[in-house]
Amino acid sequence: MLSLKDIDCQGKRVFLRVDFNVPLDEEGSIRDDTRIKAALPTIKYLLEQKTKLIIVSHLGRPKGKYNPKLSLKPVAKRLSELISLQVTLAPDVFGDKVTKLKRELKEGQVLLLENVRFHSEETENDSCFAQHLAQDVDYYVNDAFGACHRAHASVVAITQYVKKSVAGFLVKKEVDYLSKAVFSPEKPYTAILGGAKVSDKIPVIENLLKKADSILIGGAMAYTFFKAQGYEVGNSLVEEDKIDLARIILNRVNEEKVNFYLPSDHIVAAKAEPEEESRTVDSFPLPLNLMGLDIGPETIEKYSKIISESKTIFWNGPMGVFEIDKFSNGTTKIAEAVAASEALSIIGGGDSVAAVYKAGVSEKISHISTGGGASLEFIANETLPGIEALTEE
Ligand code: ADP
Ligand code: MG
User: Where does the pLDDT of residue 257 fall: very low under 50, low under 70, confident under 90, or very high at 90 and above?
Assistant: First the structure.
């Protein structure tokens, strides 16, 4: 994969795909501009190189139709403030007006195209649409890590129609870190998996069975595994239609050399609500009216010890319903253990990342991925469509 420093883009017309899919409030103001800030190193570099910079992003799910509520207008304004430079917002991604704006662009100027998902051809990875996007473009730069697992026109097809396609600084950093876990993890390698559903994480677990030394399971997904072993898990969240798959995974555990851990104690309550009375339970069956909502103290201790002895850690998915203080202890303690370890630590997943910030230990994590789905898919498939599409060398 080539990256930005491998090409001489001085004065060239560059198409930069970013992930400016920021959360908006009711009034359409940006609630959190982390994603815009994450692309700034690449944007600033390209401006220093005096490129004619065309920036492209998606925002929300407009389903192939123009929707003024999902216009990139607020993003153009915020980007302009962040780089102290005028950012022109084009009315669309192609057409006569856009072509004119692209051709009139001068060195060191920025043109932001409108939401690329206003056209259904984007998500269809349409070649003709990609050709329109690539019109008059010299180089393609992908810095949209959060979109790299999508085979979309501005991520994949477009690379066919430009001289060279390279990774921006953000994508390069993500791929470098995740590659360490995937291709050359220093051992012992521990994976921590939690969250709501097993179904989201099956391909990841399958890959980790071969790669990791230990897999620590928490969150609701543990209960689908317990159910697969025949335990009564009360009212805990179980994916009934994934019990068979969970059983297959448990059988695979026996074939591989991996240590697979499920929680040995649980914080249970009748509902995932702050006023509910909760208690610790360390054996099955769980009472019928109660659900497991966090890992218990014994599990925390066991997992923390394994974490402290690890050299590489990948974590996705909180250990409990961390949004509610009463059920956040497991996630917080595991976050602290990961932060305290000397391992190369990588965290991916929207909620997991939020949990790490909530625990206040983000500074001590080696790499916090900006792409939840993309980081999981990279761990599962060892590459991504958007990475494969870049120029090899
Ligand atoms: P990520 O976004 O990091 O990939 P997920 O979206 O897979 O994580 O899972 C996060 C969600 O899982 C959170 O909303 C959390 O409340 C929920 N969760 C974790 N443990 C449990 C549990 N025991 N019961 C119900 N929900 C849980
Ligand atoms: Mg999530």
Answer: confident
